[in-house]
Design brief:
By secondary structure, this protein is mainly β. The protein folds into two domains: 7-45 and 56-84 and 185-263, Pnp Oxidase, Chain A; 92-174, no CATH class. It is 3% helix and 50% strand. It contains one helix and 18 strands. The strands form three sheets. Strands 1, 2, 3, 4, 5, 15, 16, 17 and 18 form a nine-stranded antiparallel β-sheet that branches. The protein has a seven-stranded mixed β-sheet with strand order 7-13-9-10-11-12-8, with no helix packed on it. The longest helix has 8 residues, at 75-82.
Length: 265
């Protein structure tokens, strides 16, 4: 087969990110929904004569954009776009639980942090699920409108709440050690990487598929990105916008190579 001169493309790319400092591969995205390249430049014209027509055009400000849309969220990519590493380990997470009183007691599921100061807050629950009267923590003898806390167990004033009374409790507890924390901070920003896009193109003559590889020498991830959560419609996607930069010592913003994968030696 001869590498095509005319071709069509209808396939999303695989995107591989390489660290500019180490030249090592950082991650490959294999679940992209769309991948696109936009070439940009400005044109200014010398204009004059009757009708002030355009006479000569001057092009400049060469640039480009890469837009990737991922069907899934990947922690490593979020770290690259936030400028912060993903931290693995136990973390303090907020909990909300509906408790049922039985024998002047009720228990939360997890072990509360800072138990010596009680929970964040405890309320009687109204029939519509809203908060009723707050029940205050006390470290000594329990009195009306108060509770004591021992481990996971809350104890109330004798006879104050009938069995089956619903309460709502808010507190913090420790997550498992394999939890992963994503941080967006005010002093860290998205990084710059070499990006390689691999996709397939189809020869318009024999309709055979060939590999196409786009190498973007320097792509700056943009700092504006969204995390959308909705109760209906398609699952949320992750947009990864990047600006193509000129690499040092070269004029090649990016290259595209079309080749036969079976002939790679």
């Amino acid at each position: 087969m001869t590498t095509p001169n005319t071709w069509a493309v209808r396939e999303v790319a695989l995107a591989t990110f390489y660290d500019l400092k180490t030249n090592k591969a950082r991650i490959q995205l294999q679940n992209l929904k769309t991948s696109g390249l936009e070439n940009t430049a400005d044109i200014v014209y010398a204009m004059g004569g009757r009708g002030n027509a355009r006479i000569v055009g001057f092009s400049g400000n060469r640039g480009g954009r890469v837009t990737l849309q991922d069907a899934v969220f990947t922690n490593e990519v979020i770290a690259m776009m936030s400028g912060n590493d993903i931290v693995e380990g136990a973390a303090n997470v907020f909990q909300r639980e509906v408790l049922n009183v039985a024998g002047d007691k009720a228990s939360v599921t997890a072990t509360p942090l800072n138990a010596t100061n009680g929970l964040i807050s405890v309320y009687e629950m109204n029939e519509d699920g809203t908060h009723g009267e707050e029940i205050q923590f006390v470290s000594g003898s329990v009195t009306a409108g108060h509770y004591t806390l021992s481990g996971k167990e809350l104890t109330f004033n004798a006879g104050e709440f009938a069995d089956g009374t619903k309460l709502v409790a808010y507190y913090q507890a420790a997550s498992a050690s394999d939890s992963k924390k994503i941080t967006i901070s005010s002093d860290k920003f998205a990084g710059t990487y070499k990006v390689v896009l691999d996709c397939l193109v189809r020869n318009t003559i024999d309709e055979q598929d060939y590999a196409a590889q786009i190498v973007i020498n320097k792509a700056k991830m943009e700092d504006n990105w969204n995390l959308t959560m909705a109760a209906e419609g398609d699952p949320s996607v992750f947009d990864i916008p990047m600006e193509i930069l000129k690499p040092p010592g070269s004029t090649e913003m990016y290259t595209m190579t079309i080749y036969d994968e079976s002939q790679v030696v």
